[in-house]
Design goal:
By secondary structure, the protein is of the alpha+beta class. Helix content is 22%, strand content 26%. The protein has eight helices and 16 strands. The strands form three sheets. It has a seven-stranded antiparallel sheet with strand order 5-2-1-6-7-8-9. Helix 5 runs parallel beside helix 6. The chain is globular and about 65 Å long.
Length: 329
C-alpha cells in the first residue's frame, strides 16, 4: 500500500443489516505487513442474542472487506460453522452490482491455516464473478454450470446469487468441508434463494461430477505445471458432454511455465479474450512461438515481447477467456 488506508468498522448481522456502532482507532502496520487496529463496540441489548460480525473495510477499492467469524454476546453456544470441522480464520466479502438492482454480497469463510492456498479467496474468482454479473441475465435460470478447483466456492456461490439455475461446485475431497460451510453461510443470508448449489468431489483426470453443463468455470487454477495435464483432461471430459458447453476462466500469471497450459488449451479449444490485457507470459526472452501463442489469446504483440522480471501482482492484470471445444475433438 502506498499509504495507510482510512478504515471503516461496523457491526452487522449475517444479512448485512447494521447492528451496532463501532469506533476504529488508528490503523498500524507491522513489519510483516499485518494491519492492526483497536475497535470499540456498542452492542444494543436487543442484538446480543443474534449472530453478528465485525466488518472492516477501507477507502481503497482493491482491498476486499474482512469480517470476523460470526459471534454473539449472549449465552454461549456452538456456532453453526463448527459442524464442518474446519479451523476458520475470518470471513471475506465480495460485493458486485447486477444491472440496476441493489449490490449482492457473497461472504466466504477462509481457512488458509488448515487448507493452505485452497483456504483463501483469490482475485481471479472475484474478477470472473464481476464479469458474469455484468452480462445479460435472461437465460441464467436455465444455466447448469460447474466450477473446478473452487477453493472457497466464492465463484460458484456467487453464480447462484446471480440466478444460475444449478451450479455444481467442486474441488478435492479435503476442501469440500469449507465449500459446504460457505454454502450454508450464504443460505443463511439469503443469497441462494434463486439458484441451487451442489458440492461435489472432482479430482482432475480421475473423478468428475455427473451430467452435462452449459458453463465450465475455473479461476486461478493454472499455477502448478504438475497439474496442467490433469486440468486439461477434466476440461475435455466435461466439454465433450455438451455441444454448446463454454469454458470461462480467469488467470493471472504466476508461473513461468504457465504458457505450456495455454499451448495445451490452444490444441483442443478455440479461445478468445473477453476481458483484460491477455497473456503476459513470465518468459524473459519469449520466442516467436510464445509471442504467437499470446496473440492467439488476444494479447498485444508489442506487450508480449517485453521482458518480464517477475509476477504481476495487480488484480487489474487478471484476464478472462472464453474457450469452446474444437470440432475435431
Amino acid at each position: 500500500l502506498e499509504r495507510s488506508p482510512c478504515l471503516a468498522a461496523c457491526l452487522v448481522e449475517l444479512d448485512g443489516t447494521i447492528a451496532g456502532s463501532c469506533d476504529a482507532t488508528r490503523v498500524e502496520f507491522s513489519e510483516h505487513g499485518r494491519l492492526t487496529t483497536t475497535v470499540k463496540l456498542d452492542i444494543p441489548t436487543s442484538q446480543q442474542r443474534k449472530l453478528l460480525q465485525l466488518r472492516l473495510s477501507t477507502d481503497q477499492p482493491d482491498i476486499v472487506p474482512v469480517l470476523t467469524l460470526p459471534f454473539n454476546v449472549g449465552p454461549s453456544s456452538q456456532p453453526f460453522y463448527a459442524d464442518f470441522g474446519v479451523q476458520f480464520t475470518c470471513c471475506r466479502e465480495l460485493r458486485f452490482s447486477v444491472g440496476e438492482n441493489s449490490p449482492l454480497a457473497v461472504r466466504m469463510f477462509e481457512a488458509s491455516g488448515s487448507l493452505g492456498i485452497a483456504g483463501k479467496l483469490w482475485d481471479g474468482g472475484a474478477v470472473l464473478l464481476k464479469y458474469l454479473a455484468s452480462q445479460p441475465h435472461d437465460q441464467r435460470a436455465s444455466f447448469r454450470a460447474v466450477e473446478l478447483g473452487a477453493g472457497t466456492g466464492a465463484l460458484g456461490i456467487g453464480c447462484c446469487g446471480l440466478g444460475f439455475g444449478h451450479v455444481v461446485i467442486t474441488d478435492l475431497e479435503e476442501v469440500l468441508c469449507q465449500i459446504r460451510a460457505n454454502v450454508a453461510l450464504n443460505e443463511r443470508i439469503g443469497l441462494l434463494r434463486n439458484g441451487q448449489a451442489t458440492v461435489a468431489d472432482c479430482t482432475w483426470g480421475r473423478t468428475a461430477p455427473d451430467g452435462a453443463f452449459d458453463l465450465i468455470l475455473f479461476a486461478d487454477c493454472v499455477y502448478d505445471p504438475d497439474f496442467y495435464g490433469d486440468l486439461l483432461s477434466a476440461l475435455l471430459g466435461l466439454a465433450k458432454r455438451s455441444q454448446s458447453a463454454r469454458v470461462l476462466w480467469a488467470h493471472r500469471h504466476r508461473n513461468p511455465e504457465d504458457y505450456r497450459f495455454f499451448q495445451q488449451m490452444h490444441e483442443h479449444f478455440s479461445s478468445r479474450l473477453i476481458q483484460g490485457v491477455g497473456p503476459r507470459f513470465l518468459v524473459p526472452e519469449p520466442d516467436e512461438q510464445v509471442v504467437a501463442l499470446a496473440v492467439a489469446f488476444g494479447a498485444d504483440p508489442e506487450r508480449v515481447a517485453e521482458a518480464v522480471s517477475g509476477p504481476v501482482r495487480d488484480s487489474a492484470d487478471v484476464s478472462v477467456y472464453e474457450s469452446v471445444l474444437r470440432s475435431a475433438d
